[in-house]
Design brief:
Blueprint: E1 7-8, E2 13-14, E3 19-20, E4 25-26, E5 30-32, E6 37-38, E7 43-44, E8 47-50, E9 55-56, E10 61-64, E11 77-80, E12 85-86, E13 91-93, E14 102-105, E15 110-111, E16 116-117, E17 122-123, E18 128-129, E19 134-135, E20 140-141, E21 146-147, E22 152-153, E23 158-159, E24 164-165, E25 170-171, E26 179-183, E27 187-192, H1 194-199, H2 204-219, H3 224-234, H4 238-248
Parallel strand pairs: 1-4, 2-5, 3-6, 4-7, 5-8, 6-9, 7-10, 8-11, 9-12, 10-13, 11-14, 12-15, 13-16, 14-17, 15-18, 16-19, 17-20, 18-21, 19-22, 20-23, 21-24, 22-25, 24-26
Antiparallel strand pairs: 26-27
Helix pairs in contact: 2-3
């Protein structure tokens, strides 16, 4: 299952059912799980663990050294979960000593062409990162989040679970979970991500509770502290509790 033109270091650990296509290069510290396919011209390097049933399209580059100037060759890692689709020209860089030594991608994600995951980023599961989305260093993206095409996420920001970030957005603060956030001249929250939540099986009551919370947060005229107190007093929901907890833990502020 390894093409004759591929260069695979003999120290690499390759599952028997994995497939490595033409002109791929696999380094000595790479581990590739069952039924994972490297189509062609895929470059894998560094301490890299790849799970099962992933597909890497041509010219993707995985596990290479960070572009962070503070990176000096420390033995950091990259971990890729299961059933991910990594499209053409995607770049995923390994972690750094200053960020926990690990860049991680969960399961069942779609990374469209030209996506970049910088060092120490932590991507959950079931996410979609649109064409040319750029995820800065130390960024966290929660499960089921969508970051649309050509959006840029600043270092250390968080994208909450089930959030939707519109195309060409410039994200410099945390994006609230369950929110629908779009940049015009600046990023603003327009309310809950109702369409995405309904598609994923959230009940009308859950969506309605989030709608009330976002209305209080963005349209009540209250400051953030007052709005949170009013939400906590008037809206009872596990998702709203998560929203409030996310706001209270924000270190860079959040988009409102």
């Amino acid at each position: 299952m390894i093409h004759s033109t591929a260069i695979v270091d003999p120290k690499a650990q390759i599952a028997e059912s994995a497939e490595i296509g033409p002109y791929c290069i696999v380094g000595p510290e790479v581990s590739i799980g069952a039924r994972t396919r490297l189509m062609a011209h895929v470059f894998m390097d560094g301490k890299l663990t790849v799970g099962e049933d992933n597909t890497f399209f041509p010219y993707s580059t995985i596990g290479v050294a960070s572009q962070d100037l503070k990176y000096h060759g420390e033995p950091s890692e990259t971990r890729i979960g299961h059933r991910n689709q990594i499209r053409e020209f995607v770049t995923i860089h390994r972690g750094t000593e200053g960020g926990g030594m690990l860049t991680a991608l969960g399961d069942d994600n779609l990374l469209m062409a030209y996506v970049h995951l910088a060092h120490d980023s932590q991507i959950g599961s079931h996410t979609v990162l649109g064409h040319a989305a750029t995820i800065g260093g130390h960024v966290t993206v929660g499960d089921w989040a969508i970051v649309s095409a050509s959006s840029g996420v600043h270092q250390f920001c968080r994208i909450g679970r089930h959030a939707f970030v519109g195309g060409y957005s410039v994200i410099t603060q945390d994006v609230l979970p369950f929110s629908n956030t779009v940049t015009a001249r600046e990023a603003k929250v327009f309310g809950e991500n109702a369409t995405g939540l309904k598609r994923r099986g959230f009940t009308a009551e859950q969506v309605d509770a989030l709608h009330k919370a976002f209305r209080l947060l963005t349209h009540s005229g209250l400051n953030t502290t007052q709005a949170i107190d009013k939400i906590a007093a008037e809206v009872t929901s596990a998702e709203v509790d998560e929203l409030i907890g996310f706001i209270r833990s924000a270190e860079r502020g959040f988009i409102k």
